[in-house]
## 1
Amino acid sequence: MEKILDIITEKMQQAFSAAGYDAAFGRVTVSNRPDLCEYQCNGALAAAKQYKCAPIQIAKAVAEQLEKGDYDLCEAVMPGFINLKLSGAFLANYLEQMRTEEDFGVEKIGAGKTIVVDYGGANVAKPLHIGHLRPAIIGETLKRLYKFLGYNAIGDVHLGDWGLQMGLIIAELHEREPELPYFDEGFTGEYPEEAPFTVTDLEEIYPTASAKKADPEFSHKAHQATLELQQGRRGYRALWQHIMKVSVADLKKNYDNLDVHFEKWLGESDADPYIPAMVEDMKNRGIAVQSEGAWVIPVAEEGDKKEMPPCILVKSDGSAIYATTDLATLVQRMQDWNPEKVLYVTDKRQNLHFEQVFRAARKAGIVKPETELEHVGFGTMNGKDGKPFKTRDGGVLRLEQLIADMTDFVRTKVVENQIVAENEVEETTAKIAMAALKYGDLSNQPTKDYNFDMERFAAFEGNTGPYILYTIVRIKSILSRYGAWENLPIQEPANPFAKELMIAITKLGPTLESALRASAPNLICAYIYELAGCVNKFYHETRILSEEDETLKAGYIALVGLAKNVLEQCIHILGFSAPEKM
Ligand code: ARG
């Protein structure tokens, strides 16, 4: 569906033409004086210079040409503005179209385009910790947003499953259980089906091994194991398979709990086969040059304001690093999916890394000149006091624990307020907790740091996830008391509160598009907060179910029903859902 602003701009341009002026002056904007009007056109002021006459004269002549039925107000005011208020008929017509078209008639700007969203970024053999919350929920939201706007969006978790961390685990296992067949180079039989460790073991083995990195002998052993693993040593590959299987199952479970789902579970290891040919090619074409024994890609450009070190492709010891993997992953993505765009969601401390990788990829022609590469670098989630989030003993908080804490907090409220029957407590609690957690995060501009404040995020009032859910639940209850409502048509607004609500609903498409363009889920949060406010105002000012005029009542119900559907669509994009009662 065409956006309202575009529709009325077109009509305004026709009016300028009809009045004998250049149509280009007919641009309409959202009013910056909402007390006076909803939309305005200032084109007469600029036109006056060209036509050498008073702007008000032009504004009046243009206003004359506008179709009166579209507006409750369409007035030329000094010095030459045209103020507009849409008519109830126009709005009802537009909303009825939104109600009946698929996905509210939102324009599918991504039709036929593919985007890869690289988010999550979990590391195998390490439990998810609070640092993984933001990439998971911001990435999932952006992916769902792209999907809703028509893109073929491929979410790829890009597991950290190939580097030194694997060598560290293998080296540590070797010290603990050298008799295992995986370490016997002469072993030619079948390796056991079962892994020699559980995920809980791994979660202890990895940090123990990692803490031993400072020990030169152990460190050498781990590096050696990494190298041999990458070169294909059979026993190590088998061990690696076990690590992957045990760890990925656990990661999947944890991401599932967050309602975060990846289309692809690829990792750094999947990029490995692309590295040799890519490096060879870059060396041959002089894209990579030698520097102190390493191969690097110079990526500094004229006009750089900050220092831009070269992108390291191969270290002096011959090993590939993080950037190498990201470049090779791009080779794979272009080859397999040929995306229009690749979007990375990571901590903003990786800004430089991605700048280097993007430049190197362009320089080497790994992506097409028109392929968009974007890095959404997000800020840190701190504790309530603004300091880095730590457990009581100074460790890193597990994501599972954070979710459990929020869930416990919400459950107490749900039980105390006797919101639902006992057997529904868990489901309702889980939904509210998820909304509190995700909205609390997503309502912030992604690049900014924010403080995690459980009480504030979980409050049922204010700009919070639970408040949005509460609004949806309130409408659901009205609708269920009314009965069948799905086919009721939208009517003209019966009061100013209805009109305000209708105007808010029309902003769905423009909001989602802006959020996508700016990679800013916070715009969706701000939108539904405004929309929920309009719904609640309408609810307080209008007798809905007790209205005696059945036609009027049906109109109210149709309107709040549409508002509910829009709110639910938006929270689906934000990755949470509403309970039946609250
Ligand atoms: N595993 C990485 C980390 O823990 C994040 C991966 C992000 N994605 C990427 N393509 N580099 O920092």
Note: The chain has a mean pLDDT of 95.
## 2
Amino acid sequence: MLALQGDFREHAQVLRELGANVALVRRPEELLQVDGLVIPGGESSVMDKLARTFGLAEPLRAAIRGGLPVYGTCAGLIMLADTILDGMNGQQSLGGLDIAVRRNAFGSQTASFETDLDIAALGDKPVHAVFIRAPVVETVGPLATALATLDDGRCVAVEQGNLLGTSFHPEITGEYRFHQYFLRKLVAAAR
Ligand code: GLN
């Protein structure tokens, strides 16, 4: 669990309830001890600055390139995107997902909203999704796969190999299926 900033406690709680052994990662040494990583929601520009200040950005990039399973929600999705649109001046991502993500894509008028999404990979029951100053995946490159779209067709969940990203926050709605889906990737990768 990347614990530089944001709602990592909520994610840790969900992961523990699913039986995972959760460690908080703030230093490069701690990254070497985990089989997967969740990057929480929060503020991606702050997370980026902290990751660079703590010397974590390069080790994280190397781990992602090396196949570490990583799930990013909201700001975490922005961190995983190869391209950030409307980033802060000088903002960098870690990359890994072949996507372009637009920060704060719903503007200040619609800072937050909730909706139900049909996500085939998670079964028939719709996912109740909460968006908070959320990004949208504006371009899905050939290496990434869209998992969920809004009614207007905009993409809000993607996967690519061991990487998973959502614009919304399953960790605050009692929706465990994304974390379960991610833990299955993690277990398969650890074999
Ligand atoms: N707008 C935030 C950012 O740019 C993301 C918001 C969130 O994680 N809920 O990082």
Note: The beta strands are 37-39, 70-73, 81-85, 97-102, 112-117, 127-132, 136-140, 145-149, 155-160, 163-166.
